[in-house]
Sequence to fold (653 residues):
Amino acid sequence: MTDGAEPPGWRALAETIPDCLGVHVGDEFVYVADRLATLAGTTPDALTGECWRTAVDAAAAERLAGSVFPAVRERGQWEGQVRFGDTDDGETCRVRLTVTETGAVVWTAADTPGADNRSATADEHEQSYRADSAALLRPVLDAVDDVVYVIGEDGLLQFWNDTLLEVTGYSDEELAAMHPMTLIPEDQHEFVPGLMEAIESIDDRCVEVDILTKDGERIPHEFNGTTFVDPDTGDQFRCGFARDITERLERERELERQRDDLATLDRINELLLETVRALTQTASREGVERTICDRLTASEFYKFAWVGERAFDSDTVRPRERAGEGDGYLDAVTITAHRSETGAGPVGRAMRTGEVQVTDIEDEAFEPWRAAASERGFASVAAVPLSHRDTVYGVLVVYATREDAFSPREQAGFDVLGRTVGSVIRAARSRKLLFADTVIELEFRVTEADFALVRAAAELDCTIELDGYVASGERWLLYVTVDGVAPDEAATAVAADPRIETVRVIHDRGDSGRLELVAGASVLDIVVDAGATVRTAVATAGDATLVVAAPVDAEIRQVVDHVRTQYPAADLVAHRERDREVTTVRRPDGVLDGLTDRQREAVEAAYRAGYFAWPRASTAEEVAESLDLAAPTLHAHLRKTEQHVLQTLFDGE
Fold:
């Protein structure tokens, strides 16, 4: 404005605004109050129409133009200190700048008495808020389960919450007088730089170290921290949080132990599996037992192993094979199978129950053998019954140098091993009996009506004689001849026994004939599991005579005990040795030696059922039904057997 006059209306507007210093539109003042002119060292008329820059010093002008006015236009208002005039003695005033809807900027004094009062009130409110916030922050941090602390540039604790007191056992006064490194074990000082070094050298990071309590206990914590600067003083501080990780570390250790246990169990299972594979290729019992002991003690898991059996003339368990580091142990101890102090350990229990037994040598029941076991470094023992069905042939005893060495899954693996060995021993005994030139015959007299043949013979006043039998899985096919009664009547009487599943008449000659019996359990289970075989069985109206054949070196007492387990009143009336004729059929590499078990079972059942007789006494379908086979499957087995037998006889192969 060249004439210095202000446009109409600006004065009226300015006078409605308390403490208004001036108004500028664009860059020119359109209204200037007396106080603004005085601050600028001029008059209102001289300043009106001039650029606002002429009212402030150069530095203030740059600041207002560079950052303040853009902020005012964006946010609508700004408040701060402004230096007026362009001389060293210019005055400074707190100014509030406000932009109107038309874009004009109103300058208002913010340090007038009223403004001072309002500012003081605001400061009081701010100070009160800060005080309330600090008062609230303290209980909040004290309620945190983690340790919270602040360390100053001097390396001393400036702040801590109650959790640090609870963890360490120190009082506030004691912590205030302590250096923070006192709370860290010396062997871990290298992991906490910054407590010893300059605070500004610390990078934000996470470390795991122990907090040392007043009682000397070490409690593992995970530390997280950061460095911050006080905006008012410029001082640097280290603020940190420490979390107790005891439970987390224990979980990690437990998981690691479980991983180690699983890895060990995998290796043990592989060892047991390899041992089972080796056993299936070993024919003799002695070779089987030697293989077990050698393989187990050659591993890193077991120190000593032996295989034992009940002595012939007592209940003492005598060793058959041994391996590993246990010299003198078996000579220093006495182990029995009966219920007594020397039979209360894992070996005696395994032989009586037929189940795997494990124990640590510190167990009370192991007291009779503890000194000898401890002297040789044994810590735990497993006794594994070597069994087939309900027959226990012996026991495998394994010693380890670690406590609780035999986990449930490991015991399950040993159970499979024991049953496999039992099956191999049974097969070896059967093979030995099959090819023995000389056998021991044991003749029993059985009077119990529980014997199916005795009951039927007594009921019908006839004679029933066992002609042969075939093992078919868990069942037996028994072939008997009856004399003095119609076969149908005999079949009805025998079928009344709950252990007989089916009875079929093969031959009917009026008052005599031949029957096929399918039985789920019989005396054959007991005898065969003992390593013997039933040679003859004849039942009359009063009793039955049972002749059992066993190898000359068989455990005769075991055979007798097995028979009497089933028939307690059975009397052993004869004990004799008999030479058997040598036949190529029953020799190794004989005509039937190349047959599979299923093929031999099928052809023997067909033979004894009269399938090969003329006229046929049984059809293929009847034989197949007795064996629980499909007729085409039976035909396949018979044809393969016929091919093998004829090829062996005619071609010599």
Q: What stands out?
A: Residues 345 and 366 are 6 Å apart (CA to CA). The chain has a mean pLDDT of 80. The longest helix spans residues 246-279. The chain is about 40% helix and 25% strand.
